Amino acid sequence: MHPTRRTVLATSAAAATLTALPLTQGQARATPSKPAPYRWRNAVIGGTGFVTGVVFHPAVRGLAYSRTDIGGAYRWDDRKACWTPLTDHLGWDDWNLLGVEAIAIDPAHPNRVYLALGTYTQPWAGNGAILRSEDRGTTWTRTDLTVKLGANEDGRGTGERLLVDPRNSDTLWLGTRHDGLLRSTDRGATWTPAPFPASPSPTGQGVTLLVAAGRTLYAGWGDSDGTAPTLYRTVNGTDWEPVPGTPTGTAAKVPVRAAYDRHTRELYVTYANAPGPNGQSDGAVHKLATSTGTWTDVTPARPGGTTPDGSADTFGYGGVAVDARRPGTAVVSTNNRWAAVDTLYRTTDGGRTWTSLKETAEFDVSETPFLKWGGTEPKFGWWIQAVALDPFDSRHVVYGTGATLYGTRDLRHWAPEIRGLEETAVVQLISPPVGEAHLLSGLGDIGVMYHERLTRSPSRGMASNPVFGSSTGLSQAAAKPAYVVRSGWGDHGNGAYSLDGGRSWNPFAAQPAIAKDAPGPIAANADGSVLLWSFARDGAKHPTYRSVDNGTTWSEVTSFPKGARPVADPADPTRFYAFDFDAGTVLASTDSGLSFTARASGLPSGDVQFQLVAAPGRSGDLWLSTKTGGLFRSTDGGATFTKIASCWASHTLGFGKAAPGAAYPAVYMVGSVETGTAVYRSDDEAKTWVRINDDRHQWGWTGTVITGDPRVYGRVYLGTNGRGIQYGEPPR
């Protein structure tokens, strides 16, 4: 899914011939240089991903941390009322560490913070790591683990699996999914397995939470069958035992989160029949009086009823937080409650009675209009497993969803508290040559955006008519930029066109039957008179279709390679191109996409990351970006290709306004030119490169999409897999 990577600078002129041969000893190599000074910022959308945890520091007002499933960790800046990213320094080789499994703070040492990192536990992903900081995440020391963590897997919204031992700040505990419990006695520098009575995890949930209740530590176990213990404790920091009387049954199979009320000495535990965030249909809330060992069922509402329209009201329980200032006051969240919509329940009497906060909630999403989901009023949210209560303000509650972080200061009025946190997975970017917007984006989960300003969330929100979940294609007619088309996963159509540069949209009047199940990339020719739409899903490749009447009718293009992405010539409306990566062959059409014939062959093939890109304003000027073979260029419409000697690997390529005095557009690339992978710009047609990001701005995996601004020299837009849209500019 995500490749391995490396970086640095560039060199000599284009060399070689048609095929992707490795560089020979006689070819020139680049000399590394310092990065060019660039200022990097997020193009603001606001959240857009799953906030899986929020932790307030109990001793410092306004100090809090948040974690995400693929977009790193953040620290709250109370003075600026925004989140500061803490893990942008993680580079290409460390892409798997942008998922944050857990956060731990040290109550006795406010400047200390710890992160457990690791996105996937699959064999193709690297091991996890621990980051530890003595300055609230400004700088980090790293320890690589010998086990894998799964911040973007099932159970990613369960409790913090990392804990500072309240007896001794030098001791930390880490609960893993497959490898039991680990302990460190040197503040996270080294880790060893700790004896733990539960069996190795068969499902990959393992330890779901760690929490301190006074000097006693509790660990949740997510692999019970409903009869085995789900909660363990240690009194002496060495020996772990099952907690007597733990709840059993389907509703209490997985302990999701826990919070301790130090005033009443009670531990609240939320349960579900699955780890979530999806798949939960039953759940409960129980509390343990730690001084007596007595369990009490305090579930606010039982799953399993019906809604007024007859739908089954199934759900689990997710987040839980207690009020540090008011004994017996706690908040819990439902999760995966699609029919009746999720809510927060609040109690002020230890769980004897609860009040749902949903019914009186008023939302203001003016700062992030996409949360209106195509014009509908925002609801309470979904995937609510992260809930936190400010220890210095009893009415300040925050909760994470699959798209944002909501907060209130009066338990009634809610608004996103998400400023500075951007977690979008970016799949397409277009920078129009004219018009109000300098950027259009195609995104995972939240469709297409029209960015009239880069410093504010798009005022139109998600492109509607129809609304897409994830975008799969975005294309602008080069000679008619008011015409834009898009494709994606939608419930009411999978393709649409715009006649005003992407401000408003209309669905295609018809679509091929396969579009509903496998919407893929789409391309408009230079004048917008012809569309080509490709279809593929889960490795299955389907025929490509053509329309000459703005999506009213479609016909199959039998000669187009199945699964390939159509590329329009930016100057000649009769030309399209495609790269068949199975065969390593470029194909071209000179009859407006009616038929395609093979041109250059012998190019990198097989399971390779690639992009075929047409240089703006020129006919037949094609660049082929490949991970394993490097960079190739054709100036004859794909008949022949020349290998670019200055590039060792190219992951994504784009173009922007030419440098002053230059005749050719600036070329932007995420790739390798000698010793590593970075973001580069070339002002001389890829003869030489200059690195334009730096070690503080790397964002993990950045190999999906990059484009320059055709109106502003030096400005580049970069898509990340979890840190949103980054844009960089040189000092002006």
Automatic annotation (TrEMBL):
What species is given as this protein's source? Streptomyces roseirectus
Write out the entry's keywords from A to Z. Answer: Carbohydrate metabolism, Glycosidase, Hydrolase, Polysaccharide degradation, Signal
Provide the GO MF annotations for this entry. Answer: hydrolase activity, acting on glycosyl bonds
Family the entry assigns: Belongs to the glycosyl hydrolase 74 family.
The reply to whether Signal figures as a keyword in the UniProt entry is yes
Record InterPro entries: DUF6242_C (IPR058667), TAT_signal (IPR006311), WD40/YVTN_repeat-like_dom_sf (IPR015943), Xyloglucanase_GH74 (IPR052025)
List the PANTHER family.
OLIGOXYLOGLUCAN-REDUCING END-SPECIFIC XYLOGLUCANASE-RELATED (PTHR43739:SF2), XYLOGLUCANASE (EUROFUNG) (PTHR43739)
Q: Where is the signal peptide?
A: 1-30
Which segments constitute the DUF6242 domain? 532-694
Could you tell me the superkingdom of the organism this chain comes from? Bacteria
Q: Does the keyword Signal apply?
A: yes
Q: Name one GO biological process term.
A: polysaccharide catabolic process
Q: What is this protein called?
A: 1,4-beta-glucanase
